[in-house]
Amino acid sequence: MAVVTAFIDWHTHVWLPEHLGEFGRGLDVAGQELAHRCWSGEGSHDDHDLAMRRSGVDGFIVLGLCSRFLELDIPNDYIAEQVRRHPGRAVGVGSVDPNDPDALTELKRLRLELGLQGLKLSPPYQDFHPHSAEAWAIYELADQQEMFLLFHQGSVFHPKCSIENANPVLLDRVASAFPRMRIIICHCGQPWTNETVMLMARHPNVYTDISARLNRPWQLHTMLMNATDYRVTDKILFGSDFPVFQPDEARDQLLTLNQRLPGLPTVPDAVIDGILFERPFSLLGIDPAANH
Predict the structure, then answer these.
(1) Distance of CA 5 to the CA centre of its chain
(2) How far is the C-alpha of 278 from the C-alpha of 37, rounded, in Å?
């Protein structure tokens, strides 16, 4: 029997429609495909509050993202405001665009003035190469400021974007260069889930979350079994991807994964319970009480 510590949602968003730009227009199309599942559409502070409360979430990470390429700008101040509404429960992750000449200035501000502890980057959505000089300068400053990084490093739904720079293997060099900096590869790095598992096995500082994979049970099952084989399941984090999915529904989809795939080898209950209830913030050295 797994020891229940906390139900942490490591991947949630807040936004308003005016923040989303071209990204939002593409999200509307993706939402049509998701509507029959648990698409919620809105991501305001109040929407987020309701979802976390109804789902029994003990703590959560709330993410921002900006992209000049897609006219997307979820303000870091909007993320920080949501964190302040939930003292001791929330951890904020801001974003800067490596293509923005003011990115380093904003990175200092979001860390030192807003108190956001993490940084979200996305080579396919922000249209940059993970090894570019601009990106490397951001990694160096984030490392100096003792931040953790989340990468949307994998496929994307928006037709304007390219996945040429999206393979998680491109983070191998980053993880080696910054061994102290915790890196979370979002969405299992799909469709490159095997590569994501390999990176977790190679690098103590690399983790992944399963957000937006609960609706792809075959893909998630394959990834979890591969991670079991490599003995890195303790580095897999739960995430709902709210407001695209609801935390309670994502949790229930994980709990019933084996029943949804009859005839396949079962993912051990200890693995599933561990992902849901044994991934405290302290696993990555994160302290919600350190927000300011």
Answers:
(1) 21
(2) 27
